[in-house]
Every structure is written in structure tokens, then in C-alpha cells.
Amino acid sequence: MTSSVLPVSEPAATDAPLLRVIDVVKHFSAGVGATVKAVDGVSFDIRPGETVGLVGESGCGKSTLGRLITRLLPVTSGQILFDGVDLTALRGEHLRQQRKQLQIIFQDPFASLDPRMTIGDIIGEPLVNFGLAGRHEKDRRVQELLRVVGLNPYFNNRYPHEFSGGQRQRIGIARALALRPKLIVCDEPVSALDVSIQAQIVNLLEDLQAEFHLTYLFIAHDLSVVRHISDRVLVMYLGKLVEIAPSDVLYQSQQHPYTRALLSAIPVPDPRVESQRRLIHLSGEIPSPLHPPSGCRFHPRCPIAEAPGICSQVEPPMEQKAPGRFAACHFSDRVVTEVG
């Protein structure tokens, strides 16, 4: 279904979006005529130099959307415009050349690295594939990249199993940087790491963004991490975006009850404040993407839904509620906006 309002980030006239995702759909066949609606009509944009966080519960379609943007998966329908080029229309060598500008950092830093290759070969492989460096130049560039991500440049002959989880994620970041991309999709890059290491990796990503003028789509389920790194936040539920807002605004007030429930689960590192906060418990389980609910997909768990009524019968459109703020809720004015 075509969105009534494309949730753009209101860039300046000369600041065109680097990425535009327009009504993107991804359905997977589940056999016997069944279809998993993993991503179902998603639209948003990202400006150059911006970090956009994408949050939601496990299984909501976040990682699938990241793979669609990088064309690791083909879309079922919709458009993905990158720097003015429709990636969904590209094939073969044309798509391969565009991929130099689009890279991804995977969630599991061990599974994403070939255990039979040295890290020098892993990081240097993109340079070789695109003919950007000979052997000696490749070694020099690899050592430079290792230095940039905070690793000893002379570790390039070691194998992935010889490194810790945080070091392996730094290797993955170095590989993503090798081609000097414009956009990096960070697919839960810190969720498999210890808390202290998470902070190091997030700080590294911020430093690299400033140094190399990078743009990030930062996918995560830890909303405290997203708050720290993101300029804007997209909230996803069961294959659809339900709210879009600037990060600092979203964490102060919400226009969708699902967003408010997610934020209520973030612990506050002050025992007195934490003891006075009210955790919002959502009833029931996340519905199956095989058979999503009619109307608003959140209505079976929503504390303010009218059922039977408009919530169970009519899908709410993504509408602008305030400058730069969008939500898909029939009763966003009823959402209690103050976060305790």
C-alpha cells in the first residue's frame, strides 16, 4: 500500500537525501501458499552525514530491511534510491559498482569473518575485487585501516580466532571502510559484545563518521545505545514503521503507544528514579508475520486501542504529527507523552 505521506527528514533545498526507501515490501514464501510479510510498505530517507537508528523487537523486520537496502536480498516491490540511483532496477556489473558505496557491519563479528583467511586478506579482499590496489598497496591500505580502527597494523597475518569479540568487530568495521563507502548499514553491531566493549565500538563509529563523512543506518534493539548515537529514530513493529522522530525529541515524548512501551523498558541508572518509574507491560505475544492482524498491527497488544472499532478495521497511515515527527496511530493524541 502506498503511504499517504513519505516521512522525509525535511532537508535543506540543497541537501538531498542520500538514501530514499519508498514503499519497500519483502515477502518470503513459507510454502503451501503461505507468505511471511517481513517488511510491508516501509518509507523513509537518510540525509548525508546522518545517523538514523532503527529499533524494534526481535522479528520485526529490522535486519531484513538492512539487507534489502544493501541488496543482499531482492525486494518484492518498492524502490530504494541511493544517491539518486534506483538500486532495485540494477543488475550485474551496474549493481556491483554501486555496492562500493554501500557496506554493512554484521551482528556476529565471528560468523561474518572467514576463519580460513587472515584478517589482512579479509580486509583487503574488497580492494582486490574492485582492482583498487596491487599486493603491496593492499598491504599498506590494510595496515592503515587496522590502525584507524584501533588495532595493531602488524596483526594482519593473524586469523579471526586469535582475536576477542570486540577486536573482531573492529576488523569487520575495517572491512566495511576499505572502499570508502558513503553509507554503512550497522546491523546490531554491538549486541553480541560486553557492555564495556559496546561503548568502545559506538565511540569508534562516531569518530569514524566524523573523519570519513559517513552516513549510518544503525539497527539495534538496545534503545539506550540508539539514543547515544542517532540523530533520528525509526520505530518498527511487525514489518511496518510506526513512528519516526528526532532522537532527542522521541526520548522525551512519543506519538505511538508501542514506542512508549519500548522506552519504558530502558533502565535508569538511579535507584530512586528507577523505583518510581512504571514499566508498561504489553499483553500477549507478537503476532505472526504469516498472519498479521487486520487494521493496526499493534492493536491486539495496545493499551489504548478501540477493539472492535477503527483500530482493528483500518490501518493507520503514517502521518506528520509535528515538524519532523511522524506516527501511524489513530489515537496518537491519547498517548501519555511524559516519560517517568
What would you say this structure looks like, in words?
The structure is a single chain. The protein is 29% helix and 21% strand. It is an alpha/beta fold and 340 residues long. The chain has 11 helices and 12 strands. A hairpin with a 2-residue loop joins β4 (77-82) and β5 (85-86). The longest helix is centred in the middle third of the chain and has 18 residues, at 195-212. Residues 1-6 and 8-14 have low confidence and may be disordered. The chain starts with 18 loop residues before the first strand and ends in a 13-residue tail after the last strand. The chain has helices at residues 62-69, 92-98, 119-129, 135-148, 165-177, 195-212, 223-229, 247-250, 257-264, 271-276, 310-313; strands spanning 19-31, 34-46, 51-55, 77-82, 85-86, 102-105, 183-187, 215-219, 232-237, 240-246, 319-322, 325-327.
Summarize this, please?
The protein is built from 11 helices and 12 strands. It is of the alpha/beta class.
List the helices and strands and how they pair.
Elements: E1 19-31, E2 34-46, E3 51-55, H1 62-69, E4 77-82, E5 85-86, H2 92-98, E6 102-105, H3 119-129, H4 135-148, H5 165-177, E7 183-187, H6 195-212, E8 215-219, H7 223-229, E9 232-237, E10 240-246, H8 247-250, H9 257-264, H10 271-276, H11 310-313, E11 319-322, E12 325-327
Helix pairs in contact: 3-4, 3-5, 4-5, 5-6
